[in-house]
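Trying the structure run again after the queue cleared.
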Amino acid sequence: MNLVLLLPEDLVAPDRARLMGRRLAHVREVHRAAVGKDLAVGLLGGAMGRGRVVHLDAEVLELELSLDQPPPPKLPLTLVVALPRPKVLNRVVAAAASLGAARLVLLNAWKVEKAYWASPRLSPESLRQQLVLGLEQAKDTVLPELRLARLFRPFVEDELPGLLAGGTGLLAHPGSGEGAPAVLAAPITLAIGPEGGWVEAEVQSLLRAGLQPLDLGPRILRTETALAALVGRLF
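Done. Tokens:
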């Protein structure tokens, strides 16, 4: 069962939480909450444990908390993903959170349509919601760092080298014929292109910044599929 992720404002005492509205409906319907039932809970940015339902009616659910477990450690992983189509974006953001990435950068690229950047799914509220869904699925409480890089060249030339310092950078690009290096120094930065792939000028810029090519084979994968396959292979 997924984690019930509590927000700081849900706490009415250090060991007690109260849920109302949409989140109450979610816990009642999905977690089948009932008085006396223990639920897996966690505090956003904090510890995890159990929450016993001590009160439940049509308006309010109250939990008695015992939060005594640390969240799982984050992977030493930065994902640099060319901004996908809006309908795919939610799945990619949630997957990055559930896989345990420490950082997610959504990057512009030549084959990213300009209209994607105007999508309401890029609003802070929408992105946060998908990150929270990913945490709940994976039973984690710590949000990955998330940033939007709307300009390809300044990010690659000015910021990417700093992310790569002391670690390993990999560029997922079909046709390179290169497998993962035998030894991967952490932290790892992994760049995944848009549908249709990176254009050659982008590939060369990313290689100059310090990334090494990585080929998953002859099949062309959807962004969210490539993300899961690559993280599974590297970790």
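The chain has a mean pLDDT of 93. Worth checking whether this holds up in the mutant runs.
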